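cache lookup: miss for this entity combination. No prior model stored, computing from scratch. Input as submitted by user K.M.:
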Amino acid sequence: VAKTSLTSPPWPEVKLPDPVEEAKYHAEVVQKVNGLISAGHYGRLFAVVHFASKQWKITSEDLIMMDNVLEAECGDRIRMEKVLLVGADDFTLIGRPLLGKELVRVEATVIEKTESWPKVNMRFWRRHNYQRKRIIANPQTVLRINTIEIYPCLS
Amino acid sequence: MVVLSAARWVRSRLSDRFWRVQEVLKYARHFRGRKNRCYKLAVKSVRRAFVRSTKARREKKRFLRALWITRIEAASLEHGLKYPAFISNLLKSQVELNRKVLADLAIYEPKTFKSLAALAQRRRQEGFLAALGDGKEPEGIFSRIVHHH
């Protein structure tokens, strides 16, 4: 039968690779990455952590400032558990959505607990003799990320 | 004799007028023109500046999100994906990174962003294949070619 413009669909045909071969390839890659992690062939690690209802991209020796109070004294070590992504130069570990606790360990110390600079909140309606002025100073906490460690427990 | 109330001809006079005026002028010192020196003009300008800063604090969030979306769109187009395809496929593969972090990764970690784009592309193709099905016509439906005998 002759080929017309309607013989094949207009979108490009895509073939997925063979699942068996893919499984072998995946196992190989996982073993390689495990080997790299256990041998320690990575430089600086960065991680994406979900903390204080925000996501942060952090490395070691990093300073983080949160706009709220943390119930920990200055100098306390904190372990951040909700890690979404960890990466180095050659490999990245993407969590779906989180990575396991036995895989990554992110440690931080509370450095400072202060208030923010006094922000002025003002409302004004012209010709209505209405103005309200309020000064807000939010409490802030400063954390220093000490270390990010990964352990070779991939499967 | 005990005096319980002050005498009628004593009035209280303002003694800290200078500091009350300075409280307003200190916020106007970096303005342009006479409103950084003259109190009457400064009061109006400082009031408008405060009101604008409160409103801007709410709009900053919208503005930053639009900026992140533009950056992610640019980065994903470099890898051959459009922004809605990228974001929807990332969410379908249960990767819950927000736009701020994705924009930072696109700037500072190009290899990681490339791997995320590849993940989204693969999930997109799997979605298409799942939607297309087997490629056969469903049974019990009137075929397109009508035979007249």
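stored under new cache key. Chain A has one domain: 19-150.
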